[in-house]
Design a protein that fits this description.
Strands 1, 2, 3, 4, 5, 6, 9 and 10 form an eight-stranded parallel β-sheet that branches. The protein has a two-stranded antiparallel ribbon with strand order 7-8. It has ten helices and twelve strands. The chain is α/β, with parallel strands linked by helices.
């Protein structure tokens, strides 16, 4: 017992001495210096590299832009087989084309690397070969969406951009891409990837009564927007000759819709509330439209540009992208800055400077 107590007493004395020494050391250290250690330097902030001098890349953003019109990806007349589609993408890449978004293009903001030429990929009618899944929910590697993703993975500077137009009838009955299988997922997946969803209109659209035109657009566009998880559907695909006489009908409108709403206390009706119909407006608003024409589109900076009559070039296995584009003259060559339009001084007259200014885009000449 004595030994145990003596050890405990020694430990207590040692602890007390240690505490005193530590306290004196702390006081001495604080009295020797009032300097505080310097804070670490701030982390460097990554900056976007400045666009090169337009002259160094021979920028001409008054040039024309090909808007390609694909139908189904698969066999058949007017379609493009998977093998030919891969060849088309490789030819575009090797010849300095890069895809850009259609909505941004309409707004005049062409986001394309310096020295490269923009191209817009569009796919009509929401056909099965554009996006196909098997019974297990796996995406067919030979459908258009999968081929585009694979090409982008293998080419770092090839972004996922383009527009898939769902025909109005499919959009109304939920058979986008020829099937009711996972249509919500497909549209959301495309939107997440960076593609746009548009609304394709029938060949008789222009001959419909004004009220029916508004009803069609106000029914399909909000549905496709909702299915795509809120990503706005703002671009239309209109066959040549199918424009209505009143073009303002394409731009915006609304219809009145009655929907059932519960009223009263549900407990007073054995858990089933009374319902009555409530009227509300369903609006739509668009930003532009593509059509046919078999020619490249004017630059969005051009006085000739019409955002509701953007011509497209139809391509297929029987008419490759190479054969359709090899004769293009005066192409749009990007300066690398989507907030500016750069052109040689000789092209200044081919730029609508007022419209560019109203869009917040600076015009540069060299």
């Amino acid at each position: 017992m004595r030994r145990t107590r003596s050890v405990e007493a020694a430990a207590a004395k040692l602890g007390a001495r240690t505490l005193v020494v530590a306290s004196l050391a702390a006081i001495a250290f604080s009295g020797c210096s009032s300097d505080k250690p310097a804070p670490p330097p701030p982390a460097p902030v990554a900056s976007t590299p400045a666009a090169p001098d337009p002259a160094s890349v021979k920028a001409n953003e008054a040039g024309v832009v090909p808007v390609l019109e694909f139908r189904d990806i698969g066999p058949g007349s007017g379609n493009t087989t998977p093998a030919d589609f891969k060849k088309d993408l490789q030819w575009l890449y090797d010849n300095n084309y890069r895809p850009v978004g259609l909505t941004d293009f309409v707004a005049g903001k062409v986001d394309c690397p310096p020295g490269k030429m923009p191209v817009i990929l569009t796919f009509d009618d929401g056909l099965p070969g554009q996006y196909r899944m098997d019974k297990m929910g796996n995406t067919d590697p030979n459908c258009g969406a999968a081929l585009l993703e694979a090409f982008s993975r293998n080419h770092d500077d090839w972004p996922l951009a383009g527009a898939f137009f769902i025909d109005a009838a499919s959009g109304q009955n939920g058979t986008e891409f020829g099937s009711k299988q996972a249509t919500d997922y497909k549209l959301e997946h495309l939107n997440v990837d960076g593609f746009e969803i548009g609304c394709g209109l029938p060949a008789n659209f222009g001959s419909l009564p004004d009220g029916k035109i508004t009803e069609t657009l106000a029914t399909v566009i909000p549905k496709l927007t909702s299915t795509g998880k809120g990503n706005p559907v703002g671009i239309l695909s209109i066959p040549v000759g199918a424009y209505p006489k009143n073009l303002s009908l394409l731009q915006s409108g609304s219809i009145q819709v009655a929907t059932p709403q519960p009223v009263g206390d549900p407990h007073a009706f054995k858990g089933k509330p009374q319902m009555h119909m409530v009227n509300h407006q369903v609006p739509f608003k668009t930003k532009g439209a593509v059509t046919g024409g078999d020619k490249p589109s004017p630059s969005p900076a051009s006085p000739k540009f019409d955002g509701y009559h953007i011509p497209r070039i139809a391509v297929s296995s029987s008419r490759s992208v190479e054969s359709a584009l090899k004769s293009i003259k005066d192409p749009f060559v990007s300066d690398g800055d989507p907030t500016t339009i750069a052109v040689p001084a000789a092209e200044k007259a081919n730029v609508d400077a007022d419209r560019m200014q109203s869009a917040g885009i600076t015009v540069k000449t060299y």
